[in-house]
Amino acid sequence: MTVPWGKVRAVALACGLLHASAGMADSSPDYAALARASGTPDIPGLKMVWLAPWGEPAKANRWRNIIAHQTEGPAGSARGGAYEQAKNPTRRGVTVWVETDGTVYWAVREDLIPTHGEGADRNDNKYIDNGPTYHQVLKTNSIGVEFAGNYPDVAAAVTEAQLAAWDILVRVLQARYNIPSDHVYAHNWIDFKDARYCEGCALATRARAFNFKPEPAH
Prior knowledge:
The protein is an alpha/beta fold. The protein is about 25% helix and about 10% strand. About 40% of the residues are buried.
């Protein structure tokens, strides 16, 4: 029996078995150093567009969770969304946007809170135990990352370039805000979303599989 490549790829992506290498630097980022950085640092392996610079880490919002979102928009929509977010930081949207080519747009200052999520109203334990998340993983304590490109097929996987960017970006966020791997969530895990696909699930599963452990701040 021939297994469709699309299904094989989707499973591999979720398990972290496929890794895009295009555009990746040979050296890995110094996550501990980035956790203390300010301004618009170069991050090895990432193409960053800084629409808002980092401030002092101690003055950032107390982010305790990371939520992976998907826009259900075409290629180019992450760039457009990021620029609109930068103009109105607290509008509906997120702090970080990832384009289909892997470009990462940091759109909002770390001390500002965009409007995202639906209040963590999922309580059916379909994907994870929702006891710790129900009405607790909120915009006020969760930094959002939005991935564009799943249009017109909402179930389409993110691109290899987006995966390569996510592999680095999620660990940068974890290191900077001291967020453990079990606090990386798919939007679909914490809210009732589009039943046609599981929004952010492959991304969150992949991030958790790294089991990255941030170094305590000194």
